[in-house]
Amino acid sequence: MKLSHIEHIGIAVKNLNEAIAYYENVLGLKCYAIEEVADQKVKTAFFMVGQTKIELLEATDPEGSIGKFIEKRGEGIHHIAFAVDNLPSALTELEEKSIQLIDKQPRKGAEGLNIAFLHPKSTKGVLTELCEDPVKK
Ligand code: ZN
Q1: Residue range 22-58, pLDDT digits in tens
Q2: Helices marked H in 1-137 — which ranges?
Q3: How many domains, in total, are found in the chain?
Q4: Residue 120 and which of 52, 72, 104, 129 are 20 to 30 A apart at CA?
């Protein structure tokens, strides 16, 4: 498996608009996209820092995974996402190494990326996402 860079860092927030104001007014970044991902029950906002994105995640349903995360642990870093050049073969390799996969097959994430999550039990406590850009940049 070949990881090229940190694609994004996912950060759970209680209030997307307040968080956007912080990233824009304090850190001086510019929100370039807001997207609702209905099947993950989240609304996301994206910022670019170099080639890495910050993905803010606000729950649209308290019973969704971000809603439960905030309830249990409060706001903070939720996951780290690496860019990988071949996601299906990376998942096969990880399974061979007995890494617990949340997604055994790639699925569609925000921004049209193919994504898959690895279980934090197998990744030293960090919810890990792998992303493959179907349109290579
Ligand atoms: Zn993500």
Answers
A1: 999 999 999 999 999 888 899 999 999 999 999 999 9
A2: 16-25, 65-73, 87-96
A3: 1
A4: 52
Look up the pTM and report it. Answer: 0.92
Residue among 45, 44, 42 nearest 67 (CA): 42
Domain range enclosing 70: 3-136
Contacts of 80 (CB under 8 A, 6+ apart): 6, 9, 10, 126, 127, 128, 129
Domain CATH number, residue 7: 3.10.180.10
> What is the C-alpha to C-alpha distance for residues 55 and 59, in angstroms, rounded to an integer?
13
Output phi, psi for 128, to 5 deg. Answer: -120, 130
Cα(55) to centroid of ligand 1, in Å? 7
